[in-house]
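Structure in, sequence out. Go:
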């Protein structure tokens, strides 16, 4: 039986870790390389770095940030934010990323997922889906550009399309829950897990170890969290122990 993975997330901007609510009101949360080493020492299974600036200037900054993180890190690293081409993906992989996450560019051009998967392998290709509850409450739609644009694209259908196109993993973020500390969107997780066989990383809303347990029970293969680790409320080790005590298989 596969163990569930605990993945701290580093949202970065201009070479610094930042944290906000629904991608807004960002505050400084430290040095990325130092944070990466800190979380690996605590027992993190993987790390995700998301470049929230994602401009051409930010992309260059992101490559340097990836290099600095990789110098301190031996566990797998996924990097996303502003990946628009094979060239972008290759630059991040060359800098030390193990996987690249694609969001807006994949919605605009689904063929990009297949191109990256063919060139670098499905195991390197992560579809990052930011999903928001539809305004009428009926299901979820994909949002892009840091939540600023509602695409109208059904999130569950997009998860199926993206994995068929070449994505080997789904980073599923509830835009409604991101940074709110109200727990993961368990209904979204369960619904997505019911329509795809691809591993799902749950993201958005974690505040307690129990929230992580609930996400895994809802169908997540891995759980991503930021604030609870950045603010030193919990360590990766203490969260893993809580999960183990509650019957979740983790690597201790």
């Amino acid at each position: 039986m596969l163990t569930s993975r605990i993945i701290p997330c580093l949202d970065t901007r201009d070479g610094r870790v930042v944290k906000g609510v629904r991608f807004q009101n960002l505050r400084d949360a430290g040095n990325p390389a130092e944070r990466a080493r800190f979380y690996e020492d605590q027992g993190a299974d993987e790390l995700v770095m998301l470049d929230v600036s994602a401009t051409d200037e930010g992309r260059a900054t992101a490559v340097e940030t990836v290099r600095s993180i990789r110098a301190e890190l031996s566990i797998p690293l996924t990097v996303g934010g502003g990946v628009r081409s094979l060239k972008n993906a290759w630059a991040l992989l060359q800098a030390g990323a193990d996987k690249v996450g694609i969001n807006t560019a994949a919605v605009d051009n689904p063929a990009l997922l297949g191109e990256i998967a063919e060139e670098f392998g499905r195991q390197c290709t992560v579809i990052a889906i930011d999903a928001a509850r539809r305004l009428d409450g009926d299901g979820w739609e994909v949002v892009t550009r840091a939540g600023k644009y509602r695409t109208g694209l059904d999130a569950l259908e997009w998860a199926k399309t993206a994995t068929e196109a070449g994505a080997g993993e789904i980073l599923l973020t509830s835009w409604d829950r991101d940074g709110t500390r109200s727990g993961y969107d368990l209904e979204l997780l369960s619904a997505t897990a019911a329509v795809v066989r691809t591993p799902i990383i749950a993201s958005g809303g974690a505040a307690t170890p129990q929230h992580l347990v609930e996400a895994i029970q809802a169908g997540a293969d891995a759980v991503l969290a930021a604030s609870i680790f950045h603010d030193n409320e919990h360590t990766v080790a203490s969260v893993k122990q809580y999960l183990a005590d509650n019957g979740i298989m983790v690597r201790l």
